GGDEF domain-containing protein
Amino acid sequence: MDHMEEIKNVDDKSEIKNDVDDADDKNEIKNNMDDMNEMNEIKKVDDTDEIKSVESMNEIENLDDINEIKTVDSMDKTKNVDKIKAEDEIAYEIAKGTFRGFNYEDFQDFQDLSNISDELSEIKYAFLKINELHEFHVLKFLKENDEAEYYNKFKREIKNLKKIRLNENVIKFHGVTKDPSKNFYSIVLEYCGDKNLSEDLEVVSKKGWPYKIKMAMDLAKGIKFIHAENIILCNLNSKNIISYKDNLVITDFSSAISVDSQMKSTIKITDQNIVYVDPTCFDSANKFNKPSDIYSLGVILWEITSGKSAFLDNNGQDIEELKYSLINGERKLPIELTPIELTPVDYKELYCDAWNKNKNKRPPIKDVINCLDDIDLDLVYHDYDIVPEISCKENKSITEAEACLKIIEGSPRNQYLFLPEGEILLGRKNSNYIFIKDQEINKKHAKISNYHGKVEITCFDSKSKIFINGKVFSRSHILERHDMIKIGRSTFQYFPAREFKNNIDPRLKIYNNEYFHESLKKEFNKNKKELCVLFFDLDFFGKINKQYSHDAGNYVLKELSKLIQNGYVRDNDIFARYGGEEFTVLLNNSVLKTAYETAKKIRSSVEAYPFIYEGKNLKITLSMGVSGMNSSVKEFEDLLNHAEEACRKAKEYGRNRVIIWENEQISIKKVSMLYSAIF
């Protein structure tokens, strides 16, 4: 019983425990449900916040849209204000009489000028009907859709044009007009024809040089006027220059800037205009300046002389490659801007200086005008070697005792230029004391100072190269006896004071007998292998003096001397008057065969030369002797005596012939048979 009760109690306890467990489960379920309800509440709150957040973001986006709309609206209002302000300024200028406002309806018969238009503007011309008068005018429309930018460019161009209305080589600004169908004003300009210089170059190139220089001067004067107002064109080229009634007019100011403002040029560099643009301005950090226009002018000056346009077809060449070559001064372009044959040297030098890659070395516009005004039309460019003409100012006070320069290479050869005491100039300009007509030297190339027996030659700049005895010197050089001086294509030999008087025959201007002996002795002691002497005499010369006059004889001697000196005597040879009508030639570095050939040429040329005196042709012939180094020559006098003896034999054999001395005299008739034995 007790046991049963215990069991019952246990069961009751278990039941109680089960009840408790059930209660715990219920509480847990309740708690779980409470938690779920709480989480749902939180989720509801989160969802509400998210909804509120999205609504807030939408409100913000709507606000941004509103602000953006307000900003755009504000910008439009600003642009409208700018436009109204610009148009008010234009109306004010018109009312003030600064320029004229034209009624667009008064213009008729519009025609496009596509050859003058460019990427920045559109050009038309039209009749302006005023009462019964009809006038041509040009209307310029800027290619710009942005109103604010349009009026910035418009006002800038008008401001520049207003400054330069009084020059015949710059287009005249008349006023403005407004096409009702367009939003913007356009510029009204003078009509200067419808043909640009680029189209007219072939015609210009066929004109004479006075005409071409006049064209170049038109441009230079126009640029001078523009630069005087501190305006820089930036885009000067032959397409925006009008050729009208033999006058050139600069027409385009679309890219022009004022030095006085901080504005940059709006020029767009293309493969078309790149040749004209200053290469230093390819870098946007570098500003256009007046030398930039000088560069463009240099290219146009080349076009005037060549008859070719420098405008380029792309030909597949990369514009960056073109820029690189121009920046480095290489000018490797599809059209090479090479010098043109027969262009005046002064003109060629001018345009080359104008496009110097160093803008600081380009001439200012006033120097360009001075150069154009002083061009020597007689000195023209050749792409081949010529013999330069050399002359010297007449100076009656100078004597032949002064130091002098002998012309070795140049025309006339073997003339002597005496150097007065003091300073003289040398160059290609005819105002120099020594004038050398040579494209390879400068207008003023060098200065020669002659003080107290010391003669010094000085270069003016690094381009003025002078060679002394084959070596170039940079600045000054004191000349020494017999220095060889090369300047351009001319060569001179220097003689100190009194040497000419002591060593030169005063009448014939060749060496005298004393100098010949001195030179022969000197060369014999130095070179005993390759020396030859020619000795010759004029046949029957006494008859010339008797039959005609001594003046006729003097004429023959002078002509003969010039003929031989200029035609057959080398720089290191010595040609001298031995006495009366006798002459000698010392041939340095020459073998007997060469000397004989030279003698033959001299004899035949003298026989053929027309010695015309007072209308009469005087027949002149020579008897010549030739000697060379051989075993019988012990002293220098032997060489001279052998040649003189051979000359005497030539006279005995009938005159007008050449005899070689070779231990026994050989006549010219026998030489051909004995050549193998002699040589």
About this structure: DSSP finds 15 helices and 30 strands in the chain. The chain has four domains: 1-91, 197-372, 389-497, 504-678. Residues 1-30, 667-679 have pLDDT under 50 and may be disordered.
